[in-house]
Amino acid sequence: MANIILLGPPGAGKGTQAKRLVEARGMVQLSTGDMLREAKTSGSEMGRKVADVMARGELVTDEIVIGLIREKLTGAAGGGFIFDGFPRTLAQADALGQLMAEVGQSLDAVIEMRVDDAALVARITGRFTCGGCGEVYHDDTKPTKVAGICDQCGSDNMQRRADDNADALRTRLMEYYKKTSPLIGYYYAKGDLSSVDGLAAMDAVASSIALVLDA
Ligand code: AMP
User: Fold this and answer.
1) How far apart are CA 106 and CA 90, in angstroms?
2) Given a cut of 90, is residue 7 above it in pLDDT?
């Protein structure tokens, strides 16, 4: 069992790799982005509060996302937790360390997924997701076999994220470089950091992550 963080800019493939780890190892994915999108869809007060900030590509407050993670850390995860899109600031990283200590758990690895910006723009602007099962597709690199129908579950509910456009992506990248990339140094200094080539084929990235987990 291992608790890990997947760290990388938007479009690095964190969500895709997290889903594979859930299937392969029974790990539990904790994506603050997914939790916030659910809050938005459910129309809760918090969801309404964060909707505009998210659509612009800015970070929501540390307080909100730390609260979301705190709620999820009460039960133990058999296969371990995958933190996907959290922490994104140094304050969140400190809070996560404290929360893990409170529940008697530790962080085993922080896996940085390295990619370059040009690849991110192409990846993100063609991305769409099945609203039925969560399978992620891409207009050019992974289209559905039948247009508009999910290969996995047959749903025709395909969704594009409000923040997967060129303007919001520019802001999301700036937020990443200003506020999140300092975490690379933070975890390197703690001795927890591993890096994988996020531009490799999906299976190759999964193998590199497996090597880190099994080390
Ligand atoms: P993601 O799905 O991880 O790309 O997150 C989508 C959006 O949700 C981000 O652009 C932020 O607006 C917000 N968000 C997700 N996770 C965090 C976090 N840990 N801290 C602050 N904002 C977040």
Assistant:
1) 17
2) yes
Q: What are phi and psi of 174, to 5 degrees?
A: -65, -45
| Contact in structure between 172 and 120 (CB atoms under 8 Å) | no
Residue 170 is a catalytic residue: no
Q: 188 in helix, strand or coil? A: helix
Dist. CA 133–CA 23, nearest whole Å: 13
Among candidate residues 3, 19, 1, the one with its CA nearest the CA of residue 205: 19
Indicate the top mutation candidate among 31, 54, 82, 99 to test ligand 1's pocket, ranked by most ligand atoms within 8 A of CB. Answer: 54
In the prediction, which pLDDT does 74 show?
Answer: 81
User: Cβ–Cβ contacts within 10 Å for residue 12, how many?
Assistant: 23
Whole-number pLDDT of residue 215: 86
Angle at the Cα of 18 from the Cα atoms of 5 and 171, rounded to 5 degrees: 70
Q: How far apart are CA 108 and CA 79, in angstroms?
A: 12
> Is there a contact between 107 and 191 (Cβ–Cβ < 8 Å)?
no
- 172 as an active site residue: the answer is yes
Q: Determine phi and psi for 204, rounding to 5 degrees.
A: -70, -40
| Residue 14 CA, closest ligand 1 atom number | 3
- What are the residues facing 159 on neighbouring strands? 129
Pick from 197, 7, 10: which is nearest to 90 by CA?
Answer: 7
Band of the pLDDT at 81, cuts 50, 70, 90?
very high
Residues with Cβ within 6 A of ligand 1?
10, 32-33, 36, 53-54, 57-60, 65, 85-86, 88, 92, 163, 172
